[in-house]
Write a structure and sequence with these properties.
Growth Hormone, Chain: A, about 80% helix, MFS_trans_sf, membrane, transmembrane
């Protein structure tokens, strides 16, 4: 499996998106409690909105699969994650990061997990259906390892700013997009679910 180019592209997509998610999860207490000054009572509500957005994007994914392939939805999710990460970098660089701007961008980034993960798994299992348990176990192991490494990267920088989080999220989004586009075949424009 590790030598299968296209399969590794799908694993890269999931691993990178989770790395970006874990960068946010690691930084979220600092981000919301210290940087934006939210109360400990409000923090779980603002954080929890991301879970709702992931669930909603799963529903959107199901709807989109009526006219699009899993590979098309996967690429869409990765592209939206990249745009959200670029937005986070821009507002941080311009020093205009506010709760009203940052929260929706993070919601957009994390929400794409609902488009990326199921479509990458589906695409991976197209190649490894005969060893589906092994394939999903490998994907899960790599996914959480990359997530943990991203969390460590954010934690290593003891900078009281958004930069460690947003740059890690941007790096993850770039890796996911590059991995899928370089390692997998492009879906046909007229290819649709049957």
């Amino acid at each position: 499996m590790l030598k299968h180019r296209e399969g590794m592209g799908y694993i890269c997509a999931v691993a990178a998106s989770f790395a970006g998610l874990f960068a946010f999860v690691t930084a979220s207490p600092f981000l919301y409690l210290d940087y934006f000054g939210l109360s400990p009572g409000v923090y779980p509500l603002v954080f929890g909105v991301n879970v709702v957005v992931i669930a909603l994007s799963n529903r959107v994914n199901i709807h989109l699969l009526r006219k699009r392939t899993p590979q098309q939805n996967l690429r869409l999710g990765l592209l939206v994650q990249l745009i959200a990460a670029l937005g986070l970098v821009a507002v941080t660089a311009l020093n205009i990061a506010s709760l009203v701007i940052v929260v929706p961008l993070i919601m957009l980034f994390t929400g794409m997990i609902g488009l990326i993960t199921p479509n990458a798994i589906s695409s991976l299992l197209d190649h490894f259906g005969h060893i589906s348990a092994t394939a999903t176990a490998l994907l899960g192991g790599i996914q959480f390892t990359c997530g943990a490494l991203a969390g460590v990267m954010v934690g290593l920088f003891e900078v009281e700013h958004l930069w460690p989080m947003v740059l890690t999220m941007l790096g993850a989004a770039l890796l996911g997009n590059i991995g899928v586009r370089k390692l997998t075949r492009a879906p046909a424009v007229n290819e649709q679910q049957g």
